[in-house]
């Protein structure tokens, strides 16, 4: 059933968040350290194990695929908004560093485009005329 896939995903998420909190406490940080990544790795390994043992029906797998498609973009968007908020709290130097990185990326893109030039028409080998597919009739 699809609900089993959602339950597996939710269980991995809860265990991953708990492990991230414990890892944060062990490192002396007051935040979750890698909880989402731990949850995703746990889901990959647990899902692979269940598929190898033929214990995961196709409907359960479809439940996991559905929420993976929804979950990853949401987590990326949340992390990006937190990064922007932290940059704004960090002051002018954080905003300047972000601006410099984006500007440098835009300036490098044309260099990659120029690295492989197409061969001009004059330098290409001449194409031979193709012979007809059927021989000409003999008279």
TrEMBL record:
Residues passing through the membrane, by range: 29-51, 63-80, 92-112
Entry's Gene Ontology cellular component terms: membrane
Entries under Pfam families matching the protein: MadL (PF03817)
Annotated region (Disordered), positions in chain: 117-139
InterPro entries, A to Z: Maln_transptMadL
Domain of life of the organism encoding this protein: Bacteria
Key words of the record: Membrane, Transmembrane, Transmembrane helix
UniProt keyword Membrane present: yes
Protein's recorded name: Malonate transporter subunit MadL
